[in-house]
User: Which sequence fits this backbone?
């Protein structure tokens, strides 16, 4: 199913007939160039990075106060920045749109800071046929699990042969590592739109006047 927010954004691009009719060709072209300039600055401030560094370690996130990084292969925040015309306010609107793949308030939290639920990457879904936890304590195929919610503990694993065993393994896994949805954490602001606006505000009025005079 097509994303409705994306379809609406594309329908409000400055080269669309309805927008040109509302603004006039000259004004639509001038506003488009100014808005797209701000958009490009915001996009390029989010540098492309790979999720895993060459040494095999996870990529370090950007520092608070700096723009977020665009992680390959799906840098959604950078890819889905748009510049469109808002017929209600009669202004250009530049920024990210809401995507189902970009959870909740992600863009706003990145820009202004706030709280967000962090995915629990240590959790695993145990299924029938896979190997999973059967108890906490010594046993066959027992290993020491470090940095669990219970500390360093011995966990026994076995091949899961029934739905009951799989359900028990998932309960133990949650006991060790917490809920699948993760926990709420405070996220420091990593703005990308406000710095772009500050960079373009000084020149945007001049560019507008120049293009309208042509």
Assistant:
């Amino acid at each position: 199913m097509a994303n409705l927010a994306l379809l609406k954004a594309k329908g409000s691009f400055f080269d669309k007939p309805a927008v040109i009719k509302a603004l006039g060709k000259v004004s639509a072209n001038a506003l488009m160039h100014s808005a797209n300039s701000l958009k490009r600055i915001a996009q390029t401030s989010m540098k492309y990075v790979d999720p895993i560094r060459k040494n095999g370690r996870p990529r370090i996130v950007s520092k608070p106060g700096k723009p977020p990084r665009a992680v390959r292969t799906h840098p959604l925040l950078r890819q889905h920045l748009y510049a469109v015309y808002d017929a209600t306010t009669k202004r250009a609107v530049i920024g990210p749109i809401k995507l189902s793949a970009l959870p909740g308030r992600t863009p706003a939290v990145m820009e202004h800071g706030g709280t967000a639920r962090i995915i629990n990457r240590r959790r695993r879904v145990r299924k029938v046929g896979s190997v999973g936890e059967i108890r906490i304590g010594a046993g066959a195929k027992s290993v020491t699990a470090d940095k669990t919610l219970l500390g360093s503990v011995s966990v026994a694993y076995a091949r899961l042969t029934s739905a009951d065993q799989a359900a028990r393994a998932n309960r133990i896994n949650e006991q060790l590592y917490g809920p699948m949805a993760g926990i709420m954490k405070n996220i420091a602001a990593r703005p990308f739109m406000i710095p772009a606006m500050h960079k373009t505000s000084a020149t945007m009025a001049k560019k507008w006047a120049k293009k309208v005079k042509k």
